[in-house]
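Project standup — Tuesday

K.O.: blocked on the structure for the chain from last sprint. Re-posting the sequence here as requested.
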Amino acid sequence: MGWPVLVFDIESIPDIAGLRALRGEPGEAADAQVYAAWLAERKEKGQSDFVPLHLQRVLCISVVFRNSDGLRIHSFVDRDDQSEGKVVQTFFHAVEKHMPQLVSWNGSGFDLPVLHYRGLRHGVEAGKYWDMGEDDREFKWNNYISRYHMRHLDLMDLLAMYSPKNNAPLDAMAKLCGFPGKLGMDGSQVYAQYLAGQTEDIRRYCETDVMNTYLVYCRFQKMRGGLTEAEYEQEIVLVKATLDQLALTESHWDEYLKAWV
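H.V.: unblocked you, prediction finished:
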């Protein structure tokens, strides 16, 4: 398994300002009113209440970064409702700096398209991420954009053999592999938690989700021969030791470790 590896997961909420602009809603209309009007219109048309990807505002990006120096867990969070662009740019700066293998669960279907649209919205720069061989010939054969390249590995898509009907939930696969899975909430509850001022709870949830992804990725690497049995066991020991230290100040990691089979 080659380093560096950057596993990522995002949490997003409806972009009410975007909805207001696209619907021509008056500036004095409350956010709740704008969102309720949009939901009512969708329901009347028999459409889903799922917000389209270009109207998903990035609230949090959590990452597990693994390189030769060790394992780190970090989150970029929009805490003042005005720094979404900075959050997205920081993520792409990390890609630019480290040129890691990106790993996700449904990143091609959700996380990356959202980051693309929001990056475009905020004027983000991501030259290396978008390189498909124009600047670096190596990227012609292995880049972040192609579905069948490994520089971005969407585990869900690959394990399903690129057939959506075969997709499996991360929570289920994590638990089937003996990992904790989701704790505390799921994606459908994020906006309500945000409105209740629970941004830190959302950040904690996102971090445990990205850790589930990293652990499933390690199991995948063992399956494909990227890690020997001994190396895999060493990686699990490293993860638990890292979380033990984090649990001293972050209670969600203590909960996560206690839930680990």
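K.O.: great, moving the ticket to review. The chain has a mean pLDDT of 96. The two ends are 25 Å apart (CA to CA).
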